């Protein structure tokens, strides 16, 4: 059995009862240097680096394939088109010219509507976004969703809050720089027009907390109802340019109806020249990563250096890997699984998942705040969870995708159009239970409330999250808590609005919902008081992060219970001088080892529904009786939380 914990990372001068995160990671935090091409460092990033290197090996070992091996040839050809820097530099801004000529030819609102549709077909960020998912009213079928879009800054608050004034100034300069590179002789005036128009668009966006509410976001309409409510856009022209069969979108779910109506009114009443400037900016922004180095450098300077604090552009091969993965991810995933998926990992994960579900069931059965009717619904939902582990049972077909080794921008546009066709093929049809929304080589996991499924790709099933040679205490604290976290999303503020079949339905009694919300509000209040290192006093948004915080709280608490069910003994035989109980919590802390740049931290606080790593570690254990019992905390300890103040939900 491996030692599993890296004691070189520990700082024993910091008691675990004072700061568990820095006790387990303090030496690493003092010594770590964030790579110049990254906004952070840590356990997740280490695994992502390893996955990236593995994918590079897959891409570069395809050798171009042959006529009978279409997927491998496409992988090699797409990568070759990106790595042909001589051709990319020689072309400069030339690939933009056909797109800019289309925009120059816009003469009225109908032409502008057609351009919005053409943008959807070609994968450009547009005014209103479209994408498919399970229908919340009938989760067994796919339906088209619409959503607010149209901005170049990370969130609508960047256009209005004083704390982002310096970002707005930098963005305005970025607009002028990029439009100038694209050949605009009046780039300054066009940049002003774009920024003013985006500010108007942003004023109609729903805020990020409101968009967490699936009930508010579920607004089913027929195509006729939607187009009537957004008549400022010529939807016939839009559909024709997008090659969008109207029968495929006969039913839609409109995410933010007031935004869609207001955005359409802006199209009808706004200044056409300003809209054309906005369209030019969207086109150049969408393609800048695939153009010559002056465009790439400009994009990096704002979106990574200014917003994230990143010091250096990623090596070209890394950006090429990201492109090929984004386009042909499952084709790469098949090879990744063959080469890198650990033997025995799936069987071990099946056992872990079963134990986590059993622990949730026992916990729900014993909840003292839930009535029997709601409890029965919760247990029914739990029984219907669908785990997916490692890789898909069925792989995606890429035969219709056309790729050539000497046309990078053409390949990107073809891939975007291919994705839209893939979306349209699914609409109206039955939901595919084998579909994955992540690749096997992705270091992450997810829960989908409309499908009631938990998904764990192969790449996350590695140390420090999962180690087939480690003791159960460490594995349950790391991957067990990840599993528990994803299950917990089924019962967080968002997931709890859907039932076991994924249907958006209120299965709660009023009494139980009030009891649940009392507990979540206490958790929100806890996190609202927290400000991480490097954030200049900016605090966590407890309402934005509540879903992830509920997932963390339930995940670790249920992981502890599952470990006990599996035979874990907190006071059992010591390993490395630590009791199993201590190893459990140190395994949890090791999984959150990480540091991010101050600029990136501030952006995450503004936009990310996840709390900073130090609080995902420390604030959760403050609420767990098991932590206080394991380490014998007292009122004098930094992580002490009085029993009556501890939040227990599931």
Describe the structure.
Belongs to the peptidase M13 family. Its cofactor is Zn(2+). This is Peptidase M13. Keywords: Hydrolase, Metal-binding, Metalloprotease, Protease, Zinc. Residues 444-647 form the Peptidase M13 C-terminal domain. The protein is of the alpha/beta class. It folds into 2 domains: 19-55 and 325-392 and 436-645, Collagenase (Catalytic Domain); 109-290, Neutral endopeptidase , domain2 (Neutral endopeptidase, domain 2, Orthogonal Bundle), CATH 1.10.1380. The chain contains 25 helices and 9 strands. It has helices spanning 20-31, 43-60, 70-83, 85-91, 97-104, 109-122, 165-181, 187-202, 214-217, 223-229, 235-242, 257-269, 272-287, 293-308, 316-340, 345-366, 372-383, 408-426, 472-489, 510-528, 542-565, 580-591, 598-607, 613-622, 625-631, and strands at 40-42, 128-135, 138-148, 220-222, 251-254, 386-390, 446-448, 453-457, 594-596. Strands 2-3-5-4 form a 4-stranded mixed beta sheet. Strands 6-8-7 form a 3-stranded mixed beta sheet, with helices on one face. A two-stranded antiparallel sheet has the order 1-9. Strand 2 and strand 3 (138-148) form a beta hairpin. The longest helix is centred in the middle third of the chain and has 25 residues, at 316-340. It starts with 19 loop residues before the first helix and ends in a 19-residue tail after the last helix. The model is unreliable at 64-68 (pLDDT under 50).
